[in-house]
Amino acid sequence: MGxxxxxxxxxxxxxxxxxxxxxxxxxxxxxxxxxxxxxxxxKEEPGLAFKIPLIQEVVRYDDRILSLDTQATEVTPSDDRxxxxxxxxxYRIADxxxxxxxxxxxxxxxxxxxxxxxxNAQVRAVLGSEGVTSNTILSSDRSALMSRxxxxxxxxxxxxxxxxxxxxxxxxxLPEQNLAATFDRMRAEREREATDERAxxxxxxxxxxxxxxxxxxxLVSEARKEAEITRGExxxxxxxxxxxxxxxxxxxxxxxxxxxxxxxxxxxNNSSMVLSPDSEFFNYLKSPGGAAAPAAGAAPVSQ
Length: 303
Description:
Elements lengths: L1 H19 L1 E4 L3 E7 L2 E6 L3 E4 L5 E7 L3 E4 L3 E3 L7 E11 L2 H8 L3 H21 L6 H4 L4 H16 L4 E12 L2 H73 L1 H16 L38
Antiparallel strand pairs: 1-4, 2-3, 2-5, 6-8, 7-8, 8-9
Function: HflC and HflK could regulate a protease.
InterPro entries: Band_7, Band_7/SPFH_dom_sf, HflC
Keywords: Membrane, Transmembrane, Transmembrane helix
């Protein structure tokens, strides 16, 4: 009875000591074995690990990619248009030994405070560098600027044992006090561009109208020229026909011309003419005895 009473506490103590000397490293973390604050071993592989009970302790760190959101900060690009920018970073603890030496017992809180300071400084440095304007920040060149910020932040975060995976700009906006002035300037620029476009359009329209008017004048002139030529050729042909007809039978041609003159000179039923007795106008209407015979449908002629 007395011997069992002695052995049982010893077994319990031994079991507690044995259990306290074993710890498990999860695949999502890394662990440091510390002895009186000094690093004795690093456990980066998942599985069982051992430590000296009561003397050594285990400190665990997340091995996953972590996120850090920064406070909005003002930057001044080279065109002096101030912008309010907030960014976020993706990072992980790459070197737990260096991380422990850099932040001590502060852990992630101290590390993120330092990383945020580094990140804000690099955002201001890159976005405020020579040649970077507000239009550049808001254009497709934004990705190149974020790559520059990532590279410079990674270089400065290395001594903390951190690896900066990526840096992104979440929001880029104007300060409230600058919004009205910026909108007015943008409106004025757009109105100027619209005025220039309208002026260029009116100039182009004037050129088109002038060219159209010139084309119309040229076409009309050419058409009139061709019409006059055609009319002249027709008149020449008509005169030729008349001349040929007159040459074949001059007396009949003279008679035909006289009849046409009678029709035009004596229209209607109430026409009168005053002619001298020896006028040749009614030669073809005179009787063989010398008196003029009245034309059919014509009024008597007073002589």
